[in-house]
Design brief:
It is built from twelve helices and nine strands. The strands form four sheets. Strands 4-5-6 form a three-stranded antiparallel β-sheet. Strands 1-9 form a two-stranded antiparallel ribbon. The chain has a two-stranded antiparallel ribbon with strand order 2-3. Strand 5 and strand 6 form a beta hairpin.
Length: 380
């Protein structure tokens, strides 16, 4: 399936070019975001006074000098994991085992059952527990198991799953909630990646019950939250049945990845066609024509969030392995060149505006981690 998108075509780069960018970005993360204790990281650089965040289900109640919430900390896990996967370099496994995973354990709540990771560090007291936060971690633990074959990582992924699936009930015909403490909506971000996780656990164990769980979640999400006019996905459905029609790159990206995995696992071309439809629509919807300072016309992602785009990229990478259509990777490569050449600041950090016109005063940890992951995978 080829779509005329107005770019010059796939330009191969030396393999280590993107890996070098991933490694340098990771280096700057540890240079500027290290909290200086307990293997923890800061939410922003420089540290933002007050540092309130807006992505919680309710009011941000943490006070005092704070470290990063779980979500951005988990993004660093993904970035390092991607570098380990793409390079096979054991220094990244050591980094995970000596720094990243011990830091993440500061968020692990073993008292409330099922046990899982809460949104903020345990010493600060109880905080909300998000199903999607935990899915991102379970995906990385499953991938880490695939790379190392260490059973403790598969066990960790399965244990997190027990929390994730506890968020499923029959209201709205099924689906997983977003937040355990505020069961007000069922979101694409807590269902689409849950289907991907179930398929990954099936591949790791060959236990068909995982496949069946993933298919059930996939079907519920597609039926309940897909926009039938363009194949993309709405954000959530409230318990009252109201659909929040905002669209984010990561939501469609996870359903793209899930559909691609279903094709790989079943050979049913309906799933491949579904993935290809999402892939085309996401480019049409989330990008715009842009001319770089070098005079190159590209499709540039709008201000949709660096990490969100990294999760979208997972879907395109999965699809590329199946249909070999590299034009979407070429679009990402153009975007990543634009970021490196025109958005990277003197500290080697990045803002959210991919045009390079506005610079964030406080650079978010999550934004850096997502880009490290994209470059690592592009370096394959």
């Amino acid at each position: 399936m080829v779509v005329a998108l107005g770019f010059s075509g796939f330009q191969a780069k030396p393999k280590n070019d993107d890996l070098t960018r991933a490694k340098l970005t990771l280096k700057q993360i540890f240079r500027f975001y290290d909290a200086g204790h307990d293997n923890l990281l800061n939410e922003t650089y420089p540290v933002k006074p007050g540092n309130k965040v807006s992505y919680l289900a309710g009011y941000d109640t943490i006070t005092g000098q704070r470290v990063a919430y779980l979500w951005p900390a988990s993004g660093v896990f993904s970035g390092v994991n991607a570098l380990l996967n793409e390079t096979g370099d054991k220094q990244y496994l050591q980094m995970l085992e000596k720094k990243i995973l011990p830091g993440l354990e500061q968020y692990y709540d073993s008292l409330r059952k099922p046990a899982c990771y809460q949104s903020y560090v345990i010493p600060a007291g109880k905080s909300d527990r998000y199903y999607d936060d935990n899915i991102w971690l379970a995906l990385d633990f499953c991938d880490l198991y695939t790379q190392t074959r260490k059973p403790e990582y598969l066990e960790k992924s399965v244990k997190i799953w027990q929390f994730v699936i506890s968020g499923w009930d029959d209201k709205l015909g099924g689906g997983i909630y977003w937040c355990e403490q505020k069961k007000q909506s069922k979101n694409t971000c807590s269902n689409a990646p849950a289907s991907v996780l179930a398929f990954k656990l099936f591949e790791a164990t060959r236990d068909s019950s995982w496949f069946n769980r993933g298919l059930r979640i996939y079907n519920w999400t597609k039926t309940s939250l897909q926009d039938s006019t363009d194949y993309l996905y709405f954000d959530n459905k409230s318990l009252a049945g109201r659909i929040d029609k905002k669209k984010y790159t990561y939501n469609s990206g996870q359903m793209l990845q899930s559909a691609a995995m279903l094709y790989r696992l079943t050979g049913n071309k309906t799933y491949l066609e579904e993935a290809q439809h999402i892939a085309k629509s996401a480019i049409d919807y989330f990008t715009e024509y842009f001319t770089t300072a070098e005079g190159k016309k590209i499709r540039l992602f709008k201000n949709t969030g660096n990490w969100f785009n990294a999760i979208l990229f997972r879907g395109y990478a999965e699809l590329y392995r199946l249909d070999g259509n590299n034009q979407y990777l070429a679009i990402f490569r153009d975007n990543m060149d634009q970021l490196w050449n025109h958005v990277r600041n003197k500290d080697g950090l990045f803002s959210k505006d991919w045009k390079g016109e506005k610079e964030d005063e406080y650079k978010a940890l999550l934004d850096q981690a997502g880009l490290a992951e994209i470059w690592a995978v592009l370096g394959r």
